[in-house]
């Protein structure tokens, strides 16, 4: 499980960074999205990977660390997802505005010679 | 308990701590449904809210200045009434009170300025402005790393909107880069925070400071890695070279009131680095003590050099101001990194003085350049051939235009130049003097032993960057005020020039009251250099209602 998660985060980050460095705004936005997926998984992983361990205490049950997983990273991930989503939406608006003003989807607003 | 009269007052006072966040947030929400045509009403409500926040910050600063014991709830506000480190806390100390005051002061000036014409350039200016204020105040007050992230994002989201205020291809292009860079930095922020949480099990800054010394060697690598990644996110915000290429373009593209308030945004990065570096990696951090100092010193010095070269190379005033922001950031970063306890007070003084100056300069630029052709500076020589236009053309317009426009603008510009370059007798000089004298006064017991090569390079850079600012400001000033090439006198209304004058007057006041100001800064620096006192205060704060 650790290996799969680590591989997944690595692949997402690598693809995200690659796309982030590309010259098209659409590539940049997809890159940023992939990067935020990788980060969300990473935060989740920082709470340690556990199977069959809920993050919420059962009523009446004792708070036994062996039976529960850390709830904080899961709460953090939720916050990060919401904020990341909002920021991506905002970036999309700027992207469209830029496309409207310059007529190109190049990040610098004009085509480079030789592209 | 609530029944007692005196304690009820204390309880009420206690809630002052969260008002600088809640009030702008609520006002921003109230402003949204108001019709855009009633801009004056919106502006008045927004200005009123900022004014209240300013007065609140003043009160909080008075509390903070007279020592932590006099603070309501000893300066710790537990959101949800859970004790730290389990609950999220807001912490007020001298540094955060100072930053709150500076922010709301700048906000007042920028907002008043915007009401002359700039808030008509787009929608929801005042709502976004209040949101920015709420985010900034939250970032200065919070004592929790993840909470810091949330306030950071709030501030950034508002700043994206504000940067794009007024629209147009240049702003959209600069905005696109700004948003992309900051989103990437936010990812780094999250990675850093989660690494720190994963190894230390806490997100509370004060708790982190107590735990850092006891971490075993294996985990220490991860904590330091997390801190380094976190640091990069803040350094992007602070504009350290080579993470700063977006900054001059974005700041120059922003509308003047927005650029004015953006002067504090880089200082948020500086603030967090100063706070976290001294709190978590201070003298009490055991093996991690002084982690990352060399990077701050090197990066800070390179930033000063890059900024100074940029200042010299700038043709337009907007870019000049943008590069001045970098010089100011670099000076502060290197000062933090050099680690002499004596420099810290000077650095704080410099922070206040340079932020006020740069904000005033950003506001002034548009007034000076108003009515000139774009690129007029570049074409100055060519334009000489066309001769002078009638200079009194604009004078006949009715309105509250100020008399002797060019004289007033020129005086303000001169003051800006003196303050930016750090020439006596104003606060820019006092700040640099305090920095340098703190550098050489440092006792050997400090983190860095004695005066080293790095210190000398720092002093040289500090003085040379002042020289660069002086040359650049002279050049632009002569071209603008002495050689009246274009001949049109800009029409400036009172409400626009007053904020500039007030900001510059604040700098002069700071120079006149340098003694008390430096005492406050010194007390702040002493607080920062004793991180565990703050930790004690935060971790032992009683829950409300249980006293």
Question: What distinguishing features does this structure have?
Answer:
heterodimer, A: 115 residues, mainly alpha, B: mainly alpha, two-stranded antiparallel sheet
Describe this structure in words.
The complex is a heterodimer of chains A (about 120) and B (about 550). With about 120 residues, chain A is mostly helical. Chain A has helices spanning about 1-20, 25-45, 70-100. The mean pLDDT of chain A is about 85. Chain B is mostly helical and about 550 residues long. Chain B has a domain at about 10-160. Helix content of chain B is about 70%, strand content about 0%. In chain B, strands 1-2 form a two-stranded antiparallel sheet. Chain B is globular. Chains A and B meet through α2 and α3 of A and α6 and α7 of B.
In terms of per-residue confidence, which ranges of chain B show pLDDT below 50 for 5 or more consecutive residues? 1-5, 373-399
The number of helices of chain A is 3
What is the alpha-carbon Rg of chain B in Å?
Answer: 23 Å
SS class of chain A: mainly alpha
Largest sheet of chain A: none
Distance between the termini of chain B: 6 Å
The coarse overall form of chain B would be globular
Main location (chain A): membrane
Keywords (chain A): Antiport, Cell membrane, Hydrogen ion transport, Ion transport, Membrane, Transmembrane, Transmembrane helix, Transport
GO cellular component, one term (chain A): plasma membrane
Family (chain A): Belongs to the CPA3 antiporters (TC 2.A.63) subunit C family.
Write a brief structural summary.
With 115 residues, chain A is mostly helical. Chain A has helices spanning 2-20, 25-46, 71-102. Chain A has one domain (2-102).
What is the topology?
The complex is a heterodimer of chains A (115) and B (547).
Chain A: H1 2-20, H2 25-46, H3 71-102
Chain B: H1 5-14, H2 19-31, H3 39-65, E1 76-78, E2 89-91, H4 94-114, H5 125-141, H6 145-163, H7 169-200, H8 205-211, H9 217-238, H10 246-253, H11 256-262, H12 265-280, H13 293-313, H14 317-338, H15 343-369, H16 380-383, H17 405-421, H18 427-441, H19 453-482, H20 494-512, H21 514-529, H22 531-539
Antiparallel strand pairs in B: 1-2
Membrane topology (chain A): Multi-pass membrane protein
Family (chain A): Belongs to the CPA3 antiporters (TC 2.A.63) subunit C family.
InterPro entries (chain A): CPA3_antiporter_subunitC, Mnh_C1_su, NUOK/Mnh_C1-like
């Amino acid at each position: 499980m650790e290996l799969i998660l680590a591989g997944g985060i690595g692949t997402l980050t690598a693809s995200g960074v690659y796309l982030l460095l590309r010259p098209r705004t659409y590539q940049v936005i997809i890159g940023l999205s992939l990067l935020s997926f990788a980060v969300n998984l990473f935060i989740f992983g920082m709470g340690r990977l556990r199977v069959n361990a809920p993050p919420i205490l059962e009523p009446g049950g004792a708070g036994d660390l062996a039976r529960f997983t850390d709830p904080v990273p899961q709460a953090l991930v939720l916050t990060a997802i919401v904020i990341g989503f909002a920021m991506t939406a905002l970036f999309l608006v700027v992207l469209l505005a830029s496309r409207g003003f310059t007529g190109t989807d190049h990040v610098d607003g004009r085509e480079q010679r030789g592209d | 308990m609530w029944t007692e009269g005196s304690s009820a007052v204390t309880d009420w006072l206690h809630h002052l701590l969260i008002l600088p966040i809640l009030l702008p947030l609520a006002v921003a929400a109230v402003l949204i449904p108001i019709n855009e045509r009633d801009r004056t009403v919106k502006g008045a409500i927004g200005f009123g809210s900022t004014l209240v926040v300013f007065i609140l910050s003043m009160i909080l600063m008075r509390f903070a200045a007279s020592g932590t014991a006099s603070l309501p709830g000893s300066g710790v506000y537990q959101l949800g009434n859970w004790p730290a480190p389990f609950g999220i806390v807001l912490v007020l100390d001298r540094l955060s009170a100072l930053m709150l005051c500076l922010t709301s002061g700048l906000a007042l000036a920028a907002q008043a300025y915007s009401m002359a014409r700039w808030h008509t350039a787009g929608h929801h200016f005042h709502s976004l402005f209040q949101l920015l204020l709420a985010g900034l105040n939250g970032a200065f007050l919070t004592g929790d790393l993840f909470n810091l992230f949330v306030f950071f994002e709030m501030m950034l989201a508002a700043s994206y909107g504000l940067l794009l205020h007024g629209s147009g291809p240049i702003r959209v292009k600069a905005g696109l880069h700004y948003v992309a860079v900051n989103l990437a930095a936010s990812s780094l922020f999250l990675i850093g925070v989660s690494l720190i949480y994963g190894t230390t099990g806490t997100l509370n800054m004060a708790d982190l400071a107590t735990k850092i010394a006891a971490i075993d060697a294996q985990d220490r690598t991860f904590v330091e890695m997390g801190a380094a990644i976190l640091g990069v996110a803040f350094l992007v915000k602070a504009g350290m070279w080579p993470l700063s290429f977006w900054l001059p373009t974005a700041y120059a593209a922003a509308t003047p009131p927005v650029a004015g308030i953006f002067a504090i945004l880089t200082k948020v990065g500086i603030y967090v680095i100063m706070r976290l570096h001294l709190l978590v990696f201070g003298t009490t951090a055991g093996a991690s003590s002084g982690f990352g100092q060399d990077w701050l010193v090197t990066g800070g010095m390179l930033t000063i050099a890059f900024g100074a070269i940029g200042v010299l190379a700038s043709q337009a005033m907007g870019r000049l101001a943008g590069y001045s922001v970098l010089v100011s950031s670099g000076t502060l970063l290197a000062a933090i990194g050099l680690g002499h306890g004596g420099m810290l007070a000077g650095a704080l003084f410099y922070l206040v003085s340079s932020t006020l100056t740069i904000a005033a300069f950003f506001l002034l630029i548009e007034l000076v350049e108003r009515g000139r052709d774009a690129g007029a500076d570049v074409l100055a020589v060519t334009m000489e051939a066309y001769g002078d236009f009638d200079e009194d053309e604009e004078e006949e317009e009715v309105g509250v235009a100020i008399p002797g426009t060019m004289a007033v603008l020129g005086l303000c510009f001169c003051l800006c130049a003196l303050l930016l370059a750090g020439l006596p007798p104003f606060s820019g000089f006092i700040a640099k003097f305090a920095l340098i004298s703190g550098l050489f006064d440092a006792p050997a017991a400090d983190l860095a032993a004695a005066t080293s090569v790095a210190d000398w390079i720092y002093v040289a850079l500090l003085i040379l960057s002042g020289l660069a600012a002086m040359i650049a400001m002279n050049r632009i000033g002569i071209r603008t005020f002495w050689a009246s090439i274009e001949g049109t006198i800009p029409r400036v209304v009172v409400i626009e020039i007053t904020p500039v004058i007030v900001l510059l007057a604040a700098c002069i006041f700071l120079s006149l009251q340098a003694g008390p100001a430096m005492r406050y800064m010194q007390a702040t620096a002493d607080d920062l250099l004793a991180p565990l006192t703050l930790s004690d205060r935060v971790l032992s704060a009683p829950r409300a209602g249980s006293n």
